[in-house]
Amino acid sequence: MTKSAIICGGGISGLTAGIYLGRMGWDVTVCEKDAELRTAGAGLNLWPNGIRVLEKIGLRPALEKTGVFLDQYRTFSSEGELIAVEDVKGWRETYGAPLYGVHRRHLSKMLSDALGRHNLRLGHEVASVQQDDAGAVCTFGNGETIRGDVVLGADGVASAVRNSLFGPQEFSADERVRWRGLFNVADVHADPKTEVEVWGTDGHFGYLPMGGGKAYWFAAADGVTQNVEEVTGFFGGWHGSAVPAIIAATNTSTIIRNGLRDFVRPLKNWSKGRVTLAGDAAHPVLPGMAQGANQALEDVDVLCQCLGSYDGVESALAAYESVRIAQVAPVVKGSRALFDFEGQNEVAKGNKNPLFDRYHRLAERRVI
Ligand SMILES: Cc1cc2nc3c(=O)[nH]c(=O)nc-3n(C[C@H](O)[C@H](O)[C@H](O)COP(=O)(O)OP(=O)(O)OC[C@H]3O[C@@H](n4cnc5c(N)ncnc54)[C@H](O)[C@@H]3O)c2cc1C
Questions:
Q1: The ligand 1 atom nearest the CA atom of 9
Q2: How many CB atoms lie within 10 A of CB 168?
Q3: Is residue 338 situated within a structural domain?
Q4: Which pairing describes strands 72-77 and 176-184: parallel, antiparallel, or unpaired?
Q5: What Å distances lie between residue 23 and 27, 57, 59, CA to CA?
Q6: How many domains does the chain divide into?
C-alpha cells in the first residue's frame, strides 16, 4: 500500500523532503502557512554536502539553470591583503559537488516546480499534530485536518510541530545580527564565479554571485545592529578592500537585517512516534558556517533513507534522529564560534580562513 507523508512547511527542507519521498513512491502533501512560497530574502550559499542531496534526487540540471557553481573562494583582510585562495571547483572530485550560489526566491521556485503544484497546499498553517496507532493527523488554522503515515515538521525556527511535540524551547538571549544586500556583479567588476570573504578586527563581510549577473553580500560586526546607515558607514570604511565599492553599488532598499538565535540546549529528541522534525525546526543554527540549509538537506537525505529501509515508521524515525542529532551538534557549535569572531584570531595567526578546516572535517564524513 502507498505510504503517505504530511510535510509542514514549504521551505528548503519541506520542499526537498516532498520531492525525495515523492520519488520513492510516497503520497506527499506539503503544507505551507503562507499564501505564496518564500519570495523575500537574499541569496544562499549551498555547499557540497547540501548540493549532493539535491543532485541525488535528479536536480542537477535545474540547479545549473537556477544559480551558479563557483570556482574559487578568496579570503582577504579588511586592508585588502589576500589571505587564502581555495579551489572549490575541484570539490566535485573531492566532495562530489562544488560550492553554489543562488537567489532564495529562485531556489524556492525550482524546488516547488520539481515537487509539483498538486502536492503543495498553500495557506495551510499547521496548528497541532495528534497521532494514534494507525497514523498522525495535522490540524490546520483553517479547521482542515489531514492524516498521513508520517508527519514531518519542516516549519522553521518557530516550529508549531516542535511545540506540539516538545513544548516551547529556550532560545539564546543574545541576539546576533546579520545584514545582507544585493548588487550587480558588473558594477564592481567582480568575478562571476568567485566567492569572497573579508575579515576585519571586529567584523566580517562576504559576497557571492548567484547567477544572472546578480550577487549578494552578508555582513556582521560588533555594535552594527540597528540600522542601514551603521552598516554602510562601518563597511564603507574598509578602504583597500573591495567592500566600500560593493556597499556603494548596493541599492539600500535591498539591505535586510536578520536577528538570529539558536537554542540554549539542543533538543534531546526530534521525534515522537510518527512525527519528526527537520531543518531549523529541529536545530536553529547561526549562519557562521553557512550550513543551516545544507544541514536541513542532510536531514532530509537521512530521513528518507531511513523511511525507505525500515519496515516501521517509528523505527525509521528513531534511526534518523540517532544519526542526525550527533552529526548536527558540532555544526551548530562551530557556527556560533565563527559568528562570534573567534575566527578572527585564527585569521591573524594562521593566515587562513578558519571556515575551511571546519568545512573539510565536516565534508569528509558522509551521511549514512
Ligand atoms: C541571514 C541568514 C543567512 C543564511 N545563510 C545561509 C547560507 O548561506 N547557507 C545555508 O545553508 N543556510 C543559511 N541560512 C540558514 C537557512 O536559511 C536555514 O537554515 C534554512 O532556510 C532552513 O530551512 P527550513 O526549511 O528548515 O526552514 P525555513 O526555510 O524557515 O522554512 C520553513 C517554512 O515553514 C513555513 N511555516 C512556518 N510555520 C508554519 C506552520 N505553522 N505551518 C505551515 N508552514 C509553516 C514557513 O513559512 C517557511 O516557508 C541563513 C539564515 C539566515 C537568517
A1: 34
A2: 8
A3: yes
A4: unpaired
A5: 10, 8, 12
A6: 1
Q: Count of residues for the chain?
A: 368
pLDDT tens per residue across span 228-243: 999 999 999 999 999 9
- Residue 224, in any domain of the structure: no
DSSP string, 131-149: EETTEEEEEETTS-EEEES
Question: Would you tell me how many other CB atoms lie within 10 Å of the CB of residue 196?
Answer: 22
Residue 246, all three cell numbers = 560593493
Q: Domain of 80: which CATH number?
A: 3.50.50.60
Helix axes 48-56, 354-364, angle to 10 degrees: 40
> In three state form, how does the secondary structure of 159-208 look?
CHHHHHHHCCCCECCCCEEEEEEEEEHHHHCCCCCEEEEEECCCEEEEEE
To test ligand 1's pocket by mutation, which of 6, 29, 33, 100 has the most ligand atoms within 8 angstroms of CB?
A: 33
State if residue 176 touches ligand 1 by the CB under 6 angstroms criterion: no
Q: What mean pLDDT comes out for the span 193-210?
A: 93
Quote the ligand 1 centre to 281 CA distance (angstroms): 9
Where do the DSSP E strands lie in 212-303?
214-221, 256-260, 275-277
The torsion angles phi and psi of 308, rounded to 5 degrees, stand at: -80, -20
Which residues span the domain enclosing 11? 4-172+262-364
d(CA 363, CA 52): 11
Assess whether the C-beta atom of 34 lies below 6 angstroms from ligand 1: yes
Residue ID of nearest Cα to ligand 1 atom 27: 156
Supply 211's cell numbers.
547567477
Q: State which of 19, 44, 109, 283 you would mutate to test the pocket of ligand 1, scoring each by most atoms of that ligand within 8 A of its C-beta.
A: 44
CA-nearest residue, atom 15 of ligand 1: 292
Q: In a 3-state reduction of DSSP, which class is residue 1?
A: coil
Query: Residue 255 domain-assigned?
Result: no
Q: Is 158 domain-assigned?
A: yes
Residue the block writes with cell 525500515: 310
Q: What is the pLDDT of residues 185-194, one digit of tens each?
A: 999 999 999 9
Question: What's the mean pLDDT in 248-277?
Answer: 94
Reading the block at residue 124, the C-alpha cell is 495551510
Contact (Cβ atoms closer than 8 angstroms) between residue 242 and residue 191: no
Cα dihedral sign, 229-206-295-112: positive
What is the structure's pLDDT at 202? 84
